[in-house]
Structures are given as C-alpha cells and as structure tokens.
Design a protein that fits this description.
Blueprint (H helix, E strand, L loop, with lengths): L9 E4 L45 H11 L3 H13 L4 E6 L6 E6 L2 E7 L2 H6 L4 E4 L3 E5 L4 E4 L8 E4 L7 E2 L7 E4 L11 E7 L4 H7 L10
Length: 219
C-alpha cells in the first residue's frame, strides 16, 4: 500500500461521536485455550496475578467508587487502566452480518480508512482502518472464522463461515495488527471517515514509500 494520489482523501460523516473517555473493554492478547491451543483473535492470555497491593489513602475512595458503580475490584481496575491506556480513543463494536462474529476495538472516532486496489481488495471492496493487535478483542465467534490466503500467504483474510462477511483481517502490510472494516461497525461511535487510496497493484513500492502505514499497528 502506498501514498495517496492528489485528491484521493475523501471525508464523510457517520453516526455521532462517542465520549472519548473509555468505559470498558480489555487489552487483547494472543492467548491459548485451557488445552494449550491458540484461542483465536482477541483471546485473553491469563498472566500471573500481581498479588495484593496497598491503596493507602485511596482505600476508602476506591471502596466507595466500587460500591457506587457496583463494580468488582477487577472491573474497577479494568475501567481505570482502559481510561489511562486508551485515552483519546473510543470503543467501537461490530461484527459480521449473521451475528456469529462480534468484536470490540479501541480507535479514534475519526477513522483513517485505506481503499486498496489490489486484486483481492478490489474483488471484495476491502476498505479498512488499521489498529494494533492490543486494541482489538474478539468477543465471540473464533470457531466460526475461516481464513483465505494466497501468494505470500502473509495477509490472513478471515471471514465468517456462515454469512461470508469479512469484518476484520490481518493485513500483509501490518501483520502485528488488524485491518477493521468500518462498514461492519455498529452505529454511533464513528464521527468522520477519511479515505486514502492505495496503489495495491504495486504493493511493495507503495508500502515502502508510505510514511505512516507501518506505524499504525504499533501500540
């Protein structure tokens, strides 16, 4: 994918902006199932616990916050961590047509979407924005995903086995992240969309010359 040609950026509006202060979700890890097998995109790896910690002078405030919002200690901690780590972002949710695949992703309310003209992106109209893997979480449907690859087999074109919709995939340009289909997001969290045309017919040259695409999947 490469630099957009002059006049290739187009802006559109969709939905209303969500509050920029995150209120949920968790970091995504490439984890494993109980039997040791991979748990699929968005699976949560279970790290060792940090052990007890002392809240000091904030103990009463923390307890009052939990009681007021009826949160467990884990839920309250997750809310605090998300608010810090994802500040300036909103939590989008989305999925396929039949509902078998559901995900959440933290990204800006103003999306930068790539419109690639390579053979497969043209066939399936694969417009997408790129996020780091840590900001994506598959909520359900890991067992209902299938994957198509070709040529270098680096891009992982995942789609729903039931309805055939690709709501996200792993781009060749950003194997450490995900390409998310903006048209598969639920309404209400996207404020604007800027579309950049990418010359995927000369993929290697285009990606080499692009100044920012590789960095879009960095945490």
């Amino acid at each position: 994918m490469g630099r957009a040609t002059a006049g290739s950026a187009r802006r559109s509006r969709r939905g209303s902006a969500a509050a920029s202060s995150p209120a949920g979700g968790s970091r995504r890890g490439r984890g494993k199932k109980a039997d040791g097998s991979p748990a699929g995109p968005g699976a949560e790896a279970e790290p060792p616990g940090p052990g007890p910690f002392n809240l000091g002078a904030q103990s009463r405030r923390w307890a009052a916050f939990q009681e007021l919002h009826r949160l467990s200690c884990e839920e309250a901690a997750r809310l605090l961590l998300d608010a810090y780590e994802y500040r300036g972002l909103v939590k989008h949710t989305g999925g396929c047509h039949c509902g078998a695949i559901r995900f959440e992703v933290w990204a800006s309310a103003d999306l930068h979407v790539f419109n690639c003209n390579c053979s497969i992106c043209t066939k399936k109209q694969n417009r997408h924005f790129i996020v780091p893997a840590s900001r994506f979480k598959l909520l359900k449907g890991a067992d209902n995903l299938t994957t198509y690859t070709f040529n270098t087999h680096r891009a992982q074109h995942t789609f729903c086995k039931t309805c055939g919709v690709q709501s996200f995939y792993t781009p060749r340009s950003n194997p450490d992240g995900y390409g998310i289909a903006p048209h598969c997001l639920d309404d209400g969290t996207v404020q604007t969309i800027v579309t950049e045309d990418i010359n995927g017919k000369e993929w290697e040259k285009a990606v080499k010359e692009h100044k920012t695409i590789r960095d879009m999947s960095k945490p």
